[in-house]
Amino acid sequence: METITVETKREVAWVWLDRPRQLNAINEASLAELRQAFEMLDRDGDVRAIVLAGRGPVFCAGFDVAWMSPLDAETVTREVSGVEAVYDAIESCAQPLVAAVQGPAMGGGLLLTLVADFCLASEGASFGAPEIKIGIFPNLRLVPRLERVVGFRAAKHIVLTGDPVDAATALEMGLVERVIPADALYSEAQALAETLASLPPHAVQLAKRAFSKSRARDFAAWEQEQFALCWARPERAAAMLAFLRKG
């Protein structure tokens, strides 16, 4: 892979956006490699949690304008569903995903943090959707995803002004869970991922899927069926026995 690096630390996989000279901006190659990486990890039974991070001082500057600018409306319309599928693949990956944001996360970079299950930020991180400033607006379901996390008014402020919010404001909005000194960000992300990796994996994966299924009409039936299947697994019995022994 040319734009993405995947590393494994015990049961945790790290997916690095690796175009630091281009501020980790997302181009056609990045999209293909992100999808490939997450689909590969989704099938990897040895990986129990994933951390997404960016090389260099910027997490992700968003989509590469140099790549986007020459595209005509017809091409963009044709390719949007493919781009959306990349983010859907990241969001639906079986393992819990932690975004470790060390710097600006803009546009498509902000969206990466929204499809993650957890978001940790350094004190120098910032978050924004600057698309309005280049004559477009955020698509790929960024608006409903952002609104779901930060609320209607805060989402409107971010999208309609195009101005970024700093880490402290993002924490206040609920966009991130913790703000961490820069020199401890990656170790804290690894620690959180290891905690998630230590939990019964089938239960973790089903709990994650429950959030994406929760608005479906058949959610109650799905939930009942999956809970019964989860209950029948040996790992559930072992986890409960371990809990009782601790008591």
Task: Outline the structure in words.
The chain is of the alpha/beta class and 247 residues long. It has two domains: 4-197, Alpha-Beta Complex (2-enoyl-CoA Hydratase, Chain A, domain 1), CATH 3.90.226; 201-246, no CATH class. Helices cover 50% and strands 16% of the residues. The protein has eleven helices and nine strands. It has helices at residues 28-42, 65-68, 73-91, 108-114, 142-150, 152-161, 167-173, 185-197, 201-213, 219-231, 234-246; strands spanning 4-9, 12-17, 49-54, 97-101, 104-106, 118-122, 126-128, 165-166, 178-180. The strands form two sheets. The chain has a six-stranded mixed beta sheet, sandwiched between helices. Helix 1 links the parallel strand 2 (12-17) and strand 3. It is globular, with a radius of gyration of 19 Å. The mean pLDDT is 96.
Short précis:
The protein is of the alpha/beta class and 247 residues long.
The side-by-side strand order for the widest beta sheet comes to 1-2-3-4-6-9
By CATH, the architecture of the largest domain is named: Alpha-Beta Complex
- What is the number of helical segments per DSSP (H or I, 4+ residues)? 11
Largest sheet: 6 strands, mixed
How many structural units, i.e. domains?
2
Distance between the termini: 48 Å
Q: Could you please say which CATH topology of the largest domain applies here?
A: 2-enoyl-CoA Hydratase, Chain A, domain 1
Helix content: 40-55%
Write down the secondary-structure element order.
Answer: EEHEHHEEHEEHHEHEHHHH
What Rg, in angstroms, do the CA atoms define?
19 Å
Poorly predicted ranges: none
CATH class of the largest domain: Alpha Beta
CATH H level of the largest domain: which superfamily? Answer: 2-enoyl-CoA Hydratase, Chain A, domain 1
Percent in strands: 15-25%
Number of E strands: 9
